[in-house]
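Figure caption, in words: inputs first, then the predicted bound structure.
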Amino acid sequence: MVTECPSGEKCGSSCSYPERMANSGSSDVSARDLVDPFGRTIRDLRISVTDRCNFRCTYCMPAEGMTWLPRSEVLSFEELEHVARLCVERYGVDGIRLTGGEPTVRAHLPVLVAKLATLVVPTESASPRRGQPIDLALTTNGATLTNCVDELRAAGLGRVNISLDTLDRERFERMTRRDELSNVLAGIDAAIGAGFSSVKINAVIERGVNDDEIVDLAEFGRAKGIEVRFIEFMPLDAEGHWVNDKVVSQDEIVARIGAVHPLESVPARGAAPADRWRYLDGRGTVGAIPSVTKPFCGDCDRVRITADGQFRTCLFATSEFDIRSVLRSGLAGRELDDAVAAVIERAVGTKWAGHQINQVNFVRPKRTMSQIGG
Ligand code: SAM
Ligand code: SF4
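Bound structure (iron/sulfur cluster present):
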C-alpha cells in the first residue's frame, strides 16, 4: 500500500493523498487498494500483447511505415502474467482486458488467457469481485476470430469486444485498408455462438467517413442481440488527421439513433467508459464512449501496460514507467515483486485528473493508439 503520495511535489500542499491513504483502513478503501492522488481506486488493467496488426485502420495506423517493436522488447507471457498477478493479488485489480495492436496476431494467445484466467481477486480487497476470478476480456478486430474463438473461450476468456465501423464492404476496405468485412462478420457470429458472458461491437465514428451508418450499425446490434458501443474519434491516429470537426459527439449519435428507435438512459455507468441507453421497445441496449466531448476521467479506474512493458496511467499520458527493465533486472521472488510494485505505485501517483483534449495545453502522446493499446 502507498502511504506517501509518490508525486508529492506535483500535487503540492493541497494534495490529500497521504491522509486518505492513512485513513484507508477505516474507510471503504481496503488496505490492498491502489488509490491515485485524486481518490480513484485502480481496478482495471489493459494489457497490450502486441503492437502489430493485420489491419491498417485510417484512424489508427498509417498504410505503410509502422516500425514494429523488436521481439526481444515485447514482454513474454510469463512477464505479462507476473505483472498481472501482482496487480490482482497485491492491489485488487479485478478486470483485465487484452488489446493491442491486434491481440489475436500474437502467437498462442490462448496460453496467456489460460494463465490470466486463474487469477482470483483477493477476499481482503474492497472490489465487488473479491473472492472471484477476474473479469477477463479481449478487444479484437475480429478478422481471425473464427479460427481461435473456441480456444479462447475454453482457456477462460469471459468477454469480447469486436471492432466494426461499417457494414459496407468497400467502405470497410477504405477504412481498414483490408478486404476483410466478411471475415469480421463471421467472427462476430462465432463469438456470439461461443458462450461468452458478453459480446459487444466497438464502432468508431468519424464525420464524413461513416457517420451516415450510425443507425444501420445500431440496427445490426439489435438484430444480433448485442450492444454496439459508439466511440468518439480520438486524437491518437498515427497520421495526425484528427481534427475536432471529425468528432461526432455522443449527443449527436444518441439523438440520431433515438429519432428512429426511442431510447432511455441506463443510469450508473460507474467506472465503465460507456454511457448506455435502453431501447424503449425492449430490444437491447446501446452505448457511447464520449472521450472527447464528455470525458469520464473523474471515474477512471484504468491503467495500462504496453507490449514493451511500459506502464501508463492514461491513454493520453505523456510519460511511461519502465516495468520491463525491472522484470529483467535479475531480481526474483519478493524482491522483484516489491521493485515492480514500486514502479506501479510511482506511476499511479502521477495519474492526472483528466486529459486535456480540446484545451490549448493538450499534447498528443508520442505513441499512437496501436502502440499504446486501445
Ligand atoms: N485491434 C483491436 C481492435 O481494433 O479492436 C484492438 C486494438 S484497437 C487500438 C482498440 C480500439 O481502439 C478499437 O475499438 C479501435 O476502433 C479503437 N480506436 C483505434 N484508434 C482510435 C481513435 N483514433 N479514436 C477512437 N478509437 C480508436
Ligand atoms: Fe489494428 Fe485495431 Fe488499430 Fe485497426 S484499430 S489498425 S485493427 S490496432
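The chain has twelve helices and twelve strands.
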